[in-house]
Amino acid sequence: MATSRNDDLDWLYRRPEPENNEPEHTRVLPPMPADEAAAGPSTAVQPPVRDPRHTQQPGPAASRPPQQGPRSGGWQGGGGLPPQGPPPGGGGVPVPTPGKRRHPVRTTFRALGILLLVFVVGLVAVPVYAWSKVSRVDEAPDGARPPDQPGTTILLVGSDSREGLTKAERKKLGTGRTAGGRTDTIMLMYVPVGGDPVLISIPRDSFVPIPDNGRNKINAAYSFGGPKLLVNTVEQNTGLRVDGYVEVGFGGFVNVIDALGGIRMCLPKAIKDKDSHLNLKKGCHNLAGADALGYVRMRKADPRGDLGRVERQRAMLSAMVKKGASPASVLNPVRYWQLNNAAAESVTLGEKTSARQLVTLALGMRKVSNGTGLTLTVPISDPNASTSAGSAVLWDQQQAKEMFGDIARGDTSNLKKFAKK
Protein backbone atom coordinates (compact mmCIF):
# COMPACT_ATOMS: atom_id res chain seq x y z
CA MET A 1 0.00 0.00 0.00
CA ALA A 2 1.50 3.29 -1.06
CA THR A 3 1.86 6.11 1.42
CA SER A 4 2.08 9.77 0.70
CA ARG A 5 4.50 12.26 2.21
CA ASN A 6 1.60 13.80 4.12
CA ASP A 7 0.99 10.48 5.84
CA ASP A 8 4.60 10.41 6.97
CA LEU A 9 4.28 13.87 8.41
CA ASP A 10 1.03 12.96 10.13
CA TRP A 11 2.83 10.05 11.87
CA LEU A 12 5.82 12.17 12.87
CA TYR A 13 3.73 15.06 14.30
CA ARG A 14 1.14 12.72 15.77
CA ARG A 15 -1.89 14.02 13.96
CA PRO A 16 -5.22 12.29 14.61
CA GLU A 17 -5.70 8.88 13.09
CA PRO A 18 -8.28 8.44 10.34
CA GLU A 19 -11.70 7.54 11.56
CA ASN A 20 -11.71 4.19 9.78
CA ASN A 21 -9.78 2.78 12.82
CA GLU A 22 -7.57 0.67 10.63
CA PRO A 23 -4.37 -0.66 12.23
CA GLU A 24 -1.38 1.58 11.96
CA HIS A 25 0.95 0.67 9.19
CA THR A 26 4.66 0.29 9.64
CA ARG A 27 6.38 3.49 8.65
CA VAL A 28 9.61 3.56 6.70
CA LEU A 29 11.92 6.52 7.11
CA PRO A 30 13.12 8.21 3.98
CA PRO A 31 16.46 6.92 2.71
CA MET A 32 19.61 8.76 3.95
CA PRO A 33 21.48 10.72 1.33
CA ALA A 34 24.64 9.09 0.02
CA ASP A 35 27.05 11.68 1.43
CA GLU A 36 25.62 11.32 4.97
CA ALA A 37 25.69 7.56 4.76
CA ALA A 38 29.39 7.67 3.84
CA ALA A 39 30.13 9.89 6.88
CA GLY A 40 29.02 7.11 9.27
CA PRO A 41 26.29 6.88 11.88
CA SER A 42 25.37 9.95 13.88
CA THR A 43 23.58 10.21 17.15
CA ALA A 44 22.03 13.53 16.24
CA VAL A 45 18.49 13.47 14.83
CA GLN A 46 17.87 16.05 12.13
CA PRO A 47 14.53 17.81 12.32
CA PRO A 48 12.24 17.14 9.34
CA VAL A 49 11.58 19.77 6.75
CA ARG A 50 8.13 21.24 7.10
CA ASP A 51 5.79 21.05 4.19
CA PRO A 52 4.49 24.54 3.50
CA ARG A 53 1.12 23.00 2.87
CA HIS A 54 0.86 21.94 6.49
CA THR A 55 1.83 25.09 8.35
CA GLN A 56 0.56 25.24 11.93
CA GLN A 57 -0.84 28.40 13.29
CA PRO A 58 1.35 29.87 15.98
CA GLY A 59 -0.17 29.67 19.41
CA PRO A 60 0.64 31.56 22.56
CA ALA A 61 4.34 31.49 23.43
CA ALA A 62 3.61 29.92 26.81
CA SER A 63 1.80 27.00 25.13
CA ARG A 64 4.72 26.02 22.90
CA PRO A 65 7.15 23.65 24.59
CA PRO A 66 10.77 24.71 24.26
CA GLN A 67 12.76 22.76 21.72
CA GLN A 68 15.39 20.59 23.38
CA GLY A 69 18.68 19.95 21.74
CA PRO A 70 19.86 16.38 21.46
CA ARG A 71 21.60 14.83 24.47
CA SER A 72 24.63 14.03 22.36
CA GLY A 73 26.30 15.13 19.22
CA GLY A 74 26.72 18.83 20.11
CA TRP A 75 24.35 21.76 20.29
CA GLN A 76 22.10 22.01 17.30
CA GLY A 77 20.43 25.33 18.04
CA GLY A 78 16.94 25.94 19.27
CA GLY A 79 16.09 25.71 22.98
CA GLY A 80 18.33 24.48 25.76
CA LEU A 81 21.64 25.85 26.99
CA PRO A 82 24.32 26.91 24.50
CA PRO A 83 27.81 25.37 24.78
CA GLN A 84 30.30 26.99 27.17
CA GLY A 85 33.01 29.26 25.78
CA PRO A 86 32.98 31.49 22.74
CA PRO A 87 31.24 30.34 19.55
CA PRO A 88 33.44 28.98 16.74
CA GLY A 89 33.28 32.22 14.82
CA GLY A 90 34.94 34.22 17.59
CA GLY A 91 33.45 36.81 19.90
CA GLY A 92 31.60 36.13 23.07
CA VAL A 93 32.87 36.05 26.62
CA PRO A 94 34.68 32.87 27.79
CA VAL A 95 33.69 31.34 31.08
CA PRO A 96 36.31 32.35 33.70
CA THR A 97 38.47 29.57 35.21
CA PRO A 98 38.85 29.69 39.01
CA GLY A 99 42.39 30.76 40.08
CA LYS A 100 44.80 28.39 41.86
CA ARG A 101 44.97 28.81 45.62
CA ARG A 102 48.27 28.11 47.39
CA HIS A 103 48.06 25.57 50.15
CA PRO A 104 49.22 27.24 53.41
CA VAL A 105 51.01 24.10 54.68
CA ARG A 106 52.94 23.67 51.45
CA THR A 107 53.90 27.34 51.45
CA THR A 108 55.17 27.06 55.04
CA PHE A 109 57.24 23.97 54.31
CA ARG A 110 58.66 25.60 51.18
CA ALA A 111 59.73 28.64 53.21
CA LEU A 112 61.26 26.44 55.91
CA GLY A 113 63.13 24.49 53.25
CA ILE A 114 64.61 27.69 51.82
CA LEU A 115 65.66 28.88 55.29
CA LEU A 116 67.26 25.51 56.03
CA LEU A 117 69.16 25.62 52.75
CA VAL A 118 70.45 29.14 53.50
CA PHE A 119 71.49 28.02 57.00
CA VAL A 120 73.40 24.98 55.72
CA VAL A 121 75.12 27.04 53.03
CA GLY A 122 76.10 29.59 55.69
CA LEU A 123 77.52 26.87 57.95
CA VAL A 124 79.85 25.85 55.15
CA ALA A 125 80.51 29.21 53.49
CA VAL A 126 81.49 31.17 56.62
CA PRO A 127 84.38 28.90 57.71
CA VAL A 128 85.51 28.42 54.11
CA TYR A 129 85.71 32.18 53.65
CA ALA A 130 87.31 32.81 57.04
CA TRP A 131 89.87 30.03 56.82
CA SER A 132 90.92 31.12 53.35
CA LYS A 133 92.62 34.05 55.12
CA VAL A 134 94.66 31.88 57.51
CA SER A 135 98.42 32.47 57.55
CA ARG A 136 100.73 29.60 56.62
CA VAL A 137 104.23 28.73 57.75
CA ASP A 138 106.76 26.15 56.57
CA GLU A 139 106.92 23.60 59.40
CA ALA A 140 108.27 20.48 57.69
CA PRO A 141 111.80 19.74 58.98
CA ASP A 142 114.66 18.75 56.69
CA GLY A 143 116.46 15.43 56.90
CA ALA A 144 115.32 12.07 58.27
CA ARG A 145 111.91 11.89 59.91
CA PRO A 146 110.02 9.12 61.71
CA PRO A 147 107.82 6.89 59.52
CA ASP A 148 104.11 7.61 59.24
CA GLN A 149 101.98 6.01 61.94
CA PRO A 150 98.31 5.00 61.53
CA GLY A 151 95.90 7.84 62.26
CA THR A 152 96.61 11.56 62.41
CA THR A 153 98.97 13.48 64.72
CA ILE A 154 98.63 17.27 65.03
CA LEU A 155 101.06 19.49 66.94
CA LEU A 156 99.26 22.32 68.78
CA VAL A 157 101.42 25.28 69.78
CA GLY A 158 100.59 28.30 71.92
CA SER A 159 103.23 30.89 71.09
CA ASP A 160 104.21 33.63 73.55
CA SER A 161 105.10 35.95 70.69
CA ARG A 162 104.08 39.56 71.40
CA GLU A 163 103.95 40.38 67.70
CA GLY A 164 100.98 42.61 66.85
CA LEU A 165 100.37 43.67 70.44
CA THR A 166 100.60 47.34 71.37
CA LYS A 167 102.35 48.54 74.53
CA ALA A 168 98.95 49.06 76.19
CA GLU A 169 97.82 45.55 75.21
CA ARG A 170 101.02 43.98 76.53
CA LYS A 171 100.50 45.79 79.83
CA LYS A 172 96.85 44.76 80.04
CA LEU A 173 97.60 41.12 79.23
CA GLY A 174 100.68 40.96 81.44
CA THR A 175 102.82 39.49 78.66
CA GLY A 176 105.93 41.57 79.40
CA ARG A 177 108.34 42.82 76.76
CA THR A 178 110.30 39.65 75.99
CA ALA A 179 111.57 39.78 72.42
CA GLY A 180 111.33 36.92 69.95
CA GLY A 181 109.00 34.00 70.51
CA ARG A 182 108.81 30.84 72.58
CA THR A 183 106.13 28.24 73.11
CA ASP A 184 103.93 28.59 76.17
CA THR A 185 101.89 25.54 75.20
CA ILE A 186 102.89 22.33 73.38
CA MET A 187 100.35 19.56 72.85
CA LEU A 188 100.02 16.53 70.58
CA MET A 189 96.54 15.60 69.40
CA TYR A 190 96.47 12.01 68.15
CA VAL A 191 93.36 10.59 66.45
CA PRO A 192 93.68 6.86 65.66
CA VAL A 193 91.97 5.03 62.84
CA GLY A 194 89.95 3.21 65.49
CA GLY A 195 89.74 3.87 69.21
CA ASP A 196 89.79 6.90 71.49
CA PRO A 197 91.68 10.09 70.56
CA VAL A 198 94.27 11.35 73.02
CA LEU A 199 95.47 14.88 73.84
CA ILE A 200 99.01 14.83 75.30
CA SER A 201 100.63 17.82 76.99
CA ILE A 202 104.38 18.30 76.68
CA PRO A 203 105.57 20.61 79.48
CA ARG A 204 107.33 23.60 77.99
CA ASP A 205 110.20 23.18 80.50
CA SER A 206 110.89 19.60 79.37
CA PHE A 207 114.65 19.14 79.27
CA VAL A 208 115.34 17.32 75.99
CA PRO A 209 117.88 17.14 73.16
CA ILE A 210 117.31 19.82 70.49
CA PRO A 211 118.83 18.88 67.09
CA ASP A 212 122.12 20.77 66.56
CA ASN A 213 121.55 22.75 69.78
CA GLY A 214 122.41 20.34 72.57
CA ARG A 215 120.04 19.77 75.50
CA ASN A 216 117.71 22.54 76.57
CA LYS A 217 114.11 23.27 77.49
CA ILE A 218 111.88 22.20 74.64
CA ASN A 219 110.28 25.65 74.28
CA ALA A 220 113.71 27.04 73.31
CA ALA A 221 113.54 25.06 70.05
CA TYR A 222 110.94 27.47 68.70
CA SER A 223 113.14 30.41 69.66
CA PHE A 224 116.21 28.82 68.01
CA GLY A 225 114.67 27.70 64.75
CA GLY A 226 110.93 28.43 64.62
CA PRO A 227 108.28 25.84 63.76
CA LYS A 228 110.67 23.66 61.73
CA LEU A 229 113.06 23.07 64.61
CA LEU A 230 110.20 22.64 67.09
CA VAL A 231 108.57 19.96 64.92
CA ASN A 232 111.94 18.26 64.44
CA THR A 233 112.57 18.29 68.22
CA VAL A 234 109.15 16.80 69.02
CA GLU A 235 109.56 14.10 66.38
CA GLN A 236 113.06 13.10 67.53
CA ASN A 237 112.00 12.85 71.19
CA THR A 238 108.68 11.06 70.69
CA GLY A 239 109.33 8.94 67.60
CA LEU A 240 106.01 10.18 66.11
CA ARG A 241 105.56 11.74 62.70
CA VAL A 242 103.81 15.13 62.96
CA ASP A 243 101.13 15.33 60.25
CA GLY A 244 99.80 18.85 60.91
CA TYR A 245 100.77 22.05 62.69
CA VAL A 246 98.49 24.64 64.37
CA GLU A 247 99.85 27.72 66.20
CA VAL A 248 98.01 30.42 68.17
CA GLY A 249 99.62 33.57 69.64
CA PHE A 250 98.70 35.53 72.76
CA GLY A 251 96.52 38.04 70.94
CA GLY A 252 94.77 35.34 68.93
CA PHE A 253 93.90 33.35 72.03
CA VAL A 254 92.32 36.42 73.65
CA ASN A 255 90.33 37.23 70.50
CA VAL A 256 88.89 33.72 70.28
CA ILE A 257 87.87 33.72 73.96
CA ASP A 258 86.16 37.10 73.56
CA ALA A 259 84.38 35.93 70.40
CA LEU A 260 82.99 33.03 72.43
CA GLY A 261 81.71 35.43 75.07
CA GLY A 262 84.16 34.16 77.68
CA ILE A 263 84.80 30.69 79.13
CA ARG A 264 83.34 29.43 82.40
CA MET A 265 85.95 27.90 84.69
CA CYS A 266 85.50 26.74 88.28
CA LEU A 267 88.42 27.36 90.65
CA PRO A 268 88.96 25.01 93.61
CA LYS A 269 90.64 27.88 95.47
CA ALA A 270 91.31 31.58 95.06
CA ILE A 271 94.11 32.72 92.71
CA LYS A 272 96.13 35.86 93.19
CA ASP A 273 99.09 36.18 90.83
CA LYS A 274 100.76 39.51 90.12
CA ASP A 275 102.67 38.38 87.03
CA SER A 276 99.55 37.11 85.23
CA HIS A 277 97.33 39.95 86.56
CA LEU A 278 94.94 37.49 88.20
CA ASN A 279 92.89 38.09 91.32
CA LEU A 280 90.07 35.54 91.31
CA LYS A 281 88.02 34.21 94.19
CA LYS A 282 87.22 30.56 94.73
CA GLY A 283 84.27 29.33 92.71
CA CYS A 284 83.06 29.56 89.11
CA HIS A 285 83.88 32.52 86.86
CA ASN A 286 83.19 33.48 83.26
CA LEU A 287 86.71 34.40 82.18
CA ALA A 288 87.09 37.00 79.45
CA GLY A 289 90.07 36.98 77.11
CA ALA A 290 92.65 38.69 79.34
CA ASP A 291 91.76 36.67 82.46
CA ALA A 292 91.61 33.42 80.48
CA LEU A 293 95.12 34.07 79.13
CA GLY A 294 96.45 34.73 82.63
CA TYR A 295 94.75 31.58 83.88
CA VAL A 296 96.45 29.27 81.37
CA ARG A 297 99.85 30.99 81.67
CA MET A 298 100.06 31.20 85.46
CA ARG A 299 102.52 28.87 87.17
CA LYS A 300 104.26 30.75 90.00
CA ALA A 301 101.09 30.77 92.10
CA ASP A 302 100.51 27.08 91.34
CA PRO A 303 102.36 24.73 93.73
CA ARG A 304 102.56 22.13 90.92
CA GLY A 305 104.28 24.58 88.60
CA ASP A 306 104.40 23.54 84.95
CA LEU A 307 102.40 20.34 85.55
CA GLY A 308 99.46 22.26 86.99
CA ARG A 309 99.76 24.73 84.14
CA VAL A 310 99.38 22.08 81.40
CA GLU A 311 96.30 20.66 83.10
CA ARG A 312 94.64 24.10 83.12
CA GLN A 313 95.57 24.53 79.47
CA ARG A 314 93.89 21.26 78.51
CA ALA A 315 90.81 22.15 80.56
CA MET A 316 90.59 25.57 78.90
CA LEU A 317 91.04 24.13 75.41
CA SER A 318 88.34 21.51 76.01
CA ALA A 319 85.94 24.17 77.30
CA MET A 320 86.64 26.34 74.25
CA VAL A 321 85.92 23.50 71.85
CA LYS A 322 82.75 22.52 73.70
CA LYS A 323 81.37 26.06 73.71
CA GLY A 324 82.43 26.68 70.11
CA ALA A 325 80.46 23.59 68.99
CA SER A 326 77.39 24.38 71.11
CA PRO A 327 74.06 25.45 69.53
CA ALA A 328 74.50 28.90 71.13
CA SER A 329 77.59 29.42 68.95
CA VAL A 330 76.51 27.62 65.79
CA LEU A 331 72.90 28.85 65.59
CA ASN A 332 73.80 32.44 66.46
CA PRO A 333 74.91 33.93 63.11
CA VAL A 334 76.70 36.89 64.72
CA ARG A 335 78.72 34.75 67.12
CA TYR A 336 79.36 32.14 64.41
CA TRP A 337 80.75 34.80 62.10
CA GLN A 338 82.87 36.44 64.80
CA LEU A 339 84.22 33.13 66.09
CA ASN A 340 85.30 31.86 62.68
CA ASN A 341 86.93 35.12 61.72
CA ALA A 342 88.66 35.54 65.09
CA ALA A 343 90.02 32.00 64.88
CA ALA A 344 91.14 32.42 61.27
CA GLU A 345 92.94 35.68 62.04
CA SER A 346 94.58 34.20 65.14
CA VAL A 347 95.80 30.86 63.82
CA THR A 348 98.88 29.99 61.80
CA LEU A 349 98.85 26.66 59.98
CA GLY A 350 101.65 24.57 58.56
CA GLU A 351 101.95 24.58 54.79
CA LYS A 352 101.34 20.82 54.73
CA THR A 353 98.32 20.98 57.04
CA SER A 354 95.19 20.08 55.07
CA ALA A 355 91.52 20.81 55.59
CA ARG A 356 90.91 17.10 56.21
CA GLN A 357 93.44 17.16 59.05
CA LEU A 358 91.71 20.18 60.58
CA VAL A 359 88.37 18.36 60.49
CA THR A 360 90.01 15.34 62.12
CA LEU A 361 91.48 17.62 64.78
CA ALA A 362 88.09 19.22 65.48
CA LEU A 363 86.34 15.84 65.78
CA GLY A 364 89.05 14.52 68.07
CA MET A 365 88.95 17.62 70.27
CA ARG A 366 85.18 17.36 70.54
CA LYS A 367 85.45 13.79 71.80
CA VAL A 368 88.08 14.84 74.31
CA SER A 369 85.92 17.74 75.52
CA ASN A 370 82.94 15.39 75.91
CA GLY A 371 84.96 12.96 78.01
CA THR A 372 85.14 10.18 75.40
CA GLY A 373 88.83 10.82 74.70
CA LEU A 374 91.96 10.79 76.84
CA THR A 375 94.01 13.69 78.25
CA LEU A 376 97.55 12.88 79.34
CA THR A 377 100.87 14.46 80.20
CA VAL A 378 104.19 12.96 79.13
CA PRO A 379 105.30 10.67 82.00
CA ILE A 380 107.57 12.67 84.35
CA SER A 381 110.38 11.45 86.59
CA ASP A 382 111.36 14.82 88.08
CA PRO A 383 109.24 18.01 87.76
CA ASN A 384 111.88 20.30 89.24
CA ALA A 385 115.28 19.02 88.20
CA SER A 386 118.36 21.20 88.30
CA THR A 387 119.85 21.40 84.79
CA SER A 388 122.19 23.52 82.72
CA ALA A 389 119.07 25.42 81.57
CA GLY A 390 117.89 25.97 85.16
CA SER A 391 114.98 24.27 86.84
CA ALA A 392 113.43 21.91 84.30
CA VAL A 393 111.19 18.87 83.88
CA LEU A 394 112.68 15.42 83.22
CA TRP A 395 110.71 12.74 81.41
CA ASP A 396 110.39 9.16 82.60
CA GLN A 397 112.16 7.78 79.55
CA GLN A 398 110.96 4.19 79.91
CA GLN A 399 107.27 5.08 80.31
CA ALA A 400 107.44 7.81 77.68
CA LYS A 401 108.93 5.37 75.19
CA GLU A 402 106.18 2.85 75.94
CA MET A 403 103.40 5.44 75.60
CA PHE A 404 104.65 6.88 72.33
CA GLY A 405 105.34 3.35 71.05
CA ASP A 406 101.67 2.44 71.47
CA ILE A 407 100.66 5.55 69.53
CA ALA A 408 103.15 4.76 66.76
CA ARG A 409 101.34 1.43 66.34
CA GLY A 410 97.97 3.20 66.25
CA ASP A 411 96.79 1.72 69.57
CA THR A 412 95.35 3.93 72.32
CA SER A 413 93.57 1.20 74.28
CA ASN A 414 96.29 0.93 76.95
CA LEU A 415 97.08 4.61 77.42
CA LYS A 416 94.83 5.08 80.45
CA LYS A 417 97.52 3.64 82.68
CA PHE A 418 99.63 6.74 81.99
CA ALA A 419 96.98 9.06 83.39
CA LYS A 420 97.79 10.54 86.79
CA LYS A 421 95.66 9.12 89.59
Automatic annotation (TrEMBL):
Gene3D superfamilies per UniProt: LCP protein
Region Disordered, annotated ranges: 1-102
Protein name as catalogued: LCP family protein required for cell wall assembly
Compositional bias ranges of the Basic and acidic residues kind: 1-27
Spans through the membrane: 109-131
Key words, A-Z: Membrane, Transmembrane, Transmembrane helix
Keyword Transcription regulation recorded: no
Species this chain originates from: Microlunatus panaciterrae
Top-rank lineage group of the source organism: Bacteria
InterPro entries found in the cross-reference section: LytR/CpsA/Psr_CW_biosynth, LytR_CpsA_psr
Pfam families found in the cross-reference section: LytR_cpsA_psr
Bias (Gly residues): 71-82
Entry's family note: Belongs to the LytR/CpsA/Psr (LCP) family.
Sequence ranges assigned to domain Cell envelope-related transcriptional attenuator in this UniProt record: 182-324
